[in-house]
């Protein structure tokens, strides 16, 4: 072992005459540990929220949807068959979208009415797995059944079996003027996907009933696609546009929900920057610790210089000492952060029982459990930032130590 490493490691050990310096080194290491662990846990939790919300949105929305230029599509079977030729497309299903008002006993709510084919819908969406009453198969053509989101049903105060009046904006022209189209639908089910936008504003009907209601004939609003890998949606969209031609409009989930996911990504970056300040503060503690060590060890530095040690060797000694603090704190933080992120589903319920509180109440938040999704690249990034800051913090004190003049340092020894 080179003597620079030996002396640098020795300076990190506690001695009776420099307990304060040793305590300061320990505090610096603990600060780095807490900062790294907090960064890993917070980034994992935000990844978990992003993944959970994405899963809930895409459980109702489509990975890719194909529509006509005038928001209607004729010959959807040929379009769906052409799309399914791409091996990345798992399933395709037609849909009809329309706005409507739902009314019952004076309770009126606006809703997005989606006409679906119950036989194909479960292949492209997960609504059928989130039914709290009834099932999608009960949406039979000609029976005018309707499935409501749980919050929408609660606002209308309906239960399965009730009849609600659907008021479509497409009116009938009569001698008395334009009269809104009215149709009674029987509630055959309710769903809850734990996403307020859909639970409070989406109603499902059979696609044949929706075509009659909105006077579409054999046309539909479009075709919804489910992909094997949702993150390939942009590539698939571009390839489908080339194969289907320019008579259709194709959009994917990254565009239809771009603002939401962009906001989540910005929040994640801001949290990373804010929590990195914890590691930065700990790095400043390393600077103060090494400055105190340099001040205390001036006589030792002078003796080393007298024995022939070069300024670069003196710098290396204190860089080693600061690096030990940074590496130790980073390693402990990585281990602790990973352990906490992986077991967050156990730690949070324990703290809730211990403190008799609920951090994410079901009555307030639509995600009532703290999710976690640990990414290796986040761990590597956090560890790298911590090590860089720790090593950068050693440069000034080390440079200052290399500038110590032996004659002045030993004058009063």
Q: What does this protein look like?
A:
With about 425 residues, the chain is of the alpha+beta class. Helix 2 crosses helix 12, helix 10 crosses helix 12 and helix 12 runs antiparallel to helix 14. It is elongated and about 105 Å long. The model has no long low-confidence stretch (mean pLDDT about 80). The protein folds into 2 domains: about 200 residues, no CATH class; about 190 residues, no CATH class. Strands 2-3-8-5-7-6 form a 6-stranded mixed beta barrel, surrounded by 4 helices. The protein has 16 helices and 10 strands.
Keywords:
413 residues, alpha+beta, 2 domains, elongated
Gyration radius, rounded: 32 Å
User: Can you give the mean pLDDT?
Assistant: 79
Helix percent band:
40-55%
The N- to C-terminal Cα distance equals 30 Å
Sheet with the most strands, sense and barrel status: 6 strands, mixed, barrel
Number of structural units classed as domains = 2
| Poorly predicted residue ranges | none
Element pattern in H and E = HHEHEEHEEHEEHEHEHEHHHHHHHH
Number of helices: 16
Would you tell me the structural class of the helices and strands? Answer: alpha+beta
Let me know the number of strands: 10
Arrangement of strands in the largest sheet: 2-3-8-5-7-6
> What overall geometry do the principal axes of the alpha carbons give?
elongated
Strand content: 15-25%
């Amino acid at each position: 072992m080179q003597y620079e490493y030996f002396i640098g490691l020795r300076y990190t050990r506690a001695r009776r005459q420099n307990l304060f310096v040793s305590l300061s080194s320990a505090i610096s290491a603990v600060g780095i540990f807490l900062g790294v662990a907090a960064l890993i846990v917070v980034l994992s939790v935000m990844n978990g929220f992003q993944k959970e919300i994405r899963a809930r949105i895409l459980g109702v929305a489509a990975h890719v949807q194909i529509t006509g230029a005038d928001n209607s599509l004729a010959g959807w079977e040929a379009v769906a068959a052409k799309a399914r030729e791409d091996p990345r497309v798992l399933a395709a299903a037609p849909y009809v979208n329309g706005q409507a008002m739902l009314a019952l006993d004076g309770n009126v709510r606006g809703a997005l009415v989606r006409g679906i084919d119950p036989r194909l819908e479960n292949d492209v969406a997960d609504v059928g797995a989130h039914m709290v009453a009834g099932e999608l198969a009960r949406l039979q053509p000609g029976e005018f059944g309707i499935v409501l989101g749980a919050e929408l049903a609660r606002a209308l105060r309906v239960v399965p079996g009730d009849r609600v009046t659907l008021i479509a904006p497409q009116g009938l022209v009569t001698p008395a003027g334009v009269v809104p189209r009215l149709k009674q639908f029987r509630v055959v089910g309710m769903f809850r996907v734990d996403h307020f936008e859909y639970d409070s504003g989406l109603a499902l009907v059979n696609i044949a009933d929706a075509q009659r209601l909105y006077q579409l004939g054999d046309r539909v609003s479009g075709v919804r696609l489910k992909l094997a890998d949702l993150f390939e949606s942009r590539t698939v969209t571009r390839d489908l546009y080339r194969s289907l031609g320019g008579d259709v409009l194709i959009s994917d989930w990254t565009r239809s929900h771009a603002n939401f996911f962009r906001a989540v990504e910005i929040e994640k970056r801001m949290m990373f920057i804010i929590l990195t300040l914890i590691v930065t503060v700990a790095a400043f503690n390393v600077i103060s610790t090494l400055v105190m060590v340099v001040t205390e060890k001036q006589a030792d530095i002078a003796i080393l210089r007298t024995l022939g040690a070069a300024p670069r060797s003196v710098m290396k000694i204190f860089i080693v000492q600061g690096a030990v603090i940074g590496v130790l704190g980073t390693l402990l933080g990585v281990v602790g952060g990973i352990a906490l992120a992986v077991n967050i589903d156990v730690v949070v319920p324990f703290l809730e029982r211990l403190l008799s509180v609920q951090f994410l109440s079901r009555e307030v938040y639509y995600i009532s459990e703290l999710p976690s999704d640990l990414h290796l690249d986040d761990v590597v990034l956090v560890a790298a930032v911590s090590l860089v800051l720790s090593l950068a913090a050693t440069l000034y004190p080390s440079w200052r130590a290399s500038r110590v003049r032996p004659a002045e340092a030993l004058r009063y020894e």
